[in-house]
Amino acid sequence: MKKVILIIFLTFVCTGCYNYKELNELGIVSAMGISKDGDLYNLDIQLVNVLDSEKSGLNKSPITVISGQGKTIFEAARSMNKKTSKIFFLADVDYVFLDQSVLTDGLDEIMDFLVRDTRLSLNFLIITSTENKSIDILSSISHFDTNSANNLYDAIMNSETRYGGINSLHVRELINNYYEKGKDTIFPNVYIKDTTKSSENNSLEDSKSESNVEVKNMVFFKDKEVIELTDEETKGVNFLRNKIKNATLTIKCDGGYFTIETLESKMKLISKLDVDTINVKGSIGAEIVYYGCKDNLSDTNVLKSISKKAELEVESYINESFNKSKRYNYDFLGLGNYIYKNNYNYFDFNNKDWNKEGLNKLNLTYKIDVSLYKQGNLRGDL
Questions:
Q1: Which in 169, 199, 365, 371 has the greatest CB count within 10 A?
Q2: CATH architecture for segment(s) 231-374
């Protein structure tokens, strides 16, 4: 019996990882970019350089960008073995850039790559740009963070929760939107500010661009056309999807403007059988962060008026995004998906086109309540 126990113990001690890799063999990928050139796919990857100040000096760039090309995305990735000996580590990818050439050509190949490759963590963001190429975006270094990919990731997330003018798109959401019914996708649109480096340089060289990648707006692609959303329309999307935490609303009043910041927001959709109307019921808590109006905040009627104006403002945001969705027959609000899950008999999703035959018949009604939790120390303007 003792021999059996000893053998079992030695079995665990002698085990190891058959596919382990040394750290210096790995190339940590922080971002990827995918584009098309005719029938060929271009893949750009951003590698994080582990700096050794004694050997490399402080002037060494924190990132390196490498490019490859192939008939498939996987072939493009493997073609990079001619340029580097590193084995790519994909678990720390912050974002994947999808070029217009890919988004207007269909996502079948992209979906296959994202879902099939088990090395991807599926926690990264999806972005695009209507102004810049993939390699230029990946080659730009942030002024605020040595890890430019991580800086862009944080900028998008903060803009969504603290401003509301951007809607983050995680890869899992892109996959779900692609396969679910009645739900289309809008993409965060970024651009390069103060470009000092172009893609004409050798992509394998260290990136030394001092330009910043900034978030611009949200876009979607319909019949080869690029349609942009305004900040107000994007805020409407975020309010309806319950993605907003601290959005700011600046509203005109007698004598100037006032600004409120939302502290909490919760929206709920309610629909009835065989009725072409969805009721949007919302509850928003907010505080006044700027007040430049003539009326005194000590008056309860003034506070009620501010709440009412804020309610109408939020309704207008949602309504603007809803109208654009109907205008382009593109349900980026996901209203069709809500009906598919909660009122299945209302529309035949299997045999009819929701965007063309169902979305335009839909109407929204609103019951939104804005409660002012704080008014600040002043009861009027200065």
A1: 169
A2: 2-Layer Sandwich (3.30)
